[in-house]
Design goal:
alpha/beta; Rossmann fold; Gyrase A, domain 2; six-stranded parallel sheet; five-stranded antiparallel sheet; 7 helices; disordered N terminus; Peptidase M55; Peptidase_M55
Length: about 325
């Protein structure tokens, strides 16, 4: 379906446009016309009322935040690099194949963000890669209508979740938000909620899916990629079968996007972190507003979740900086 710009007032169709979409996106008016010109529908009233028709879903933009550990076929960080990259890329292509009518932003959310093979992606996909980024794994979330968390994994300490960790096992041994243990999937869901974007689909190993399923909207779609046996072992589902499900669930999820609610706990917010060692705590303690409550425990508070998220990212980066002191001293 083609797209063009034109109508900027309700009820005014500029007939000089091609038979496609006459839309001022983000404004108040829009028309959709089939290629043969036989069907014309207004979408502006639906947008104003916070609803979409069955066809309005054609206009949505989706963020796919794709990690590595919960993906098809992989069980270890030491898998061959090209195998890792290929598996991640093929998983995200499977999701994209179910969303061909939509614009996609794919955020490479694993390690340094240079894993997805850009030249293999479909033309309706944009790719965010590299770093640093202000929003990390969720870079681009403010630009979209909904979010897919792909290939995610359990938080550190979750039994039988493959490669369990919470952002960085070298830095974080336990992460609590308002007294509740949280993982990457929940934190990123809450950041999406801060921007009023729903998480519409999640994929990962079975232990992770069980741990997060009841905490998300009932309309969210889930795909199990493998069945965890231990931290570095799993019963792998055939990647071809998984990718078929990824495609189908993406198609189901986007149809329901307006019925899936963004999720964000009410403020204020308190983060508590049990760190891997005292050196990391020594560095994080230097951040204004951070309190050190023991040799390896810190906490901070803020009524704004975006500031909480960015402070957490700073803590993670200081955990990486600690490696410099371990190797070189001052």
């Amino acid at each position: 379906m083609g797209r063009g710009r034109g109508a900027t007032d309700c009820g005014k169709y500029q007939r000089g446009l091609s038979q496609s979409l006459c839309l001022w996106y983000g404004g108040q008016c829009g028309l959709w016309r089939t290629p043969d010109g036989s069907d014309l529908r207004w979408y502006a009233p639906l947008r104003q009322e916070g609803r979409r028709s069955d066809h309005y879903q054609d206009l949505v933009k989706i963020l796919i935040s794709i990690d590595y550990e919960g993906g098809s076929g992989v069980v270890h960080w030491k898998e061959p690099s090209e195998f890792q990259r290929r598996m991640m890329t093929e998983d995200v292509i499977a999701i994209a194949s179910g969303l061909k009518e939509h614009t996609l932003i794919i955020t490479d959310a694993h390690a340094g963000g240079r894993n997805i093979l850009p030249d293999l992606l479909p033309e309706h996909c944009e790719l965010i890669r590299g770093g640093p980024r202000p929003l990390g794994m969720m870079e681009g979330v403010e630009l979209v209508d909904g979010v897919i968390l792909a290939s995610y994994h359990g938080g550190i300490g979750l039994q039988s979740s493959v490669m369990d960790h919470t952002f960085s096992s070298r830095t974080i041994q336990e992460l609590l938000l308002n007294g509740k243990i949280v993982n990457e999937g929940l934190i990123n869901t809450y950041l999406a909620g801060y921007f009023k974007k729903p998480v519409i689909m999640v994929s990962g190993d079975d232990s992770f899916i069980r741990s997060i399923q009841e905490q998300l909207d009932p309309g969210c779609e889930f795909v199990v990629t493998k069945y965890g046996i231990s931290r570095f072992s799993a019963r792998i589902r055939p990647p071809g079968v998984v990718r078929k499900e990824l495609k189908e669930c993406a198609q189901k999820a986007v149809v329901k996007i307006d019925r899936i609610k963004p999720i964000l706990p009410p403020p204020p917010y308190q983060i508590k972190i049990r760190l891997a060692d005292t050196l990391i705590a020594d560095l994080i303690e230097l951040i204004p507003g951070v309190s050190r409550t023991s040799g390896v425990e810190i906490e901070f508070n803020d009524p704004d979740f975006l500031r909480i998220y960015k402070s957490l990212r700073l803590c993670l980066n200081l955990g990486i900086a600690a490696n410099y002191y371990r190797e070189y001293g001052d």
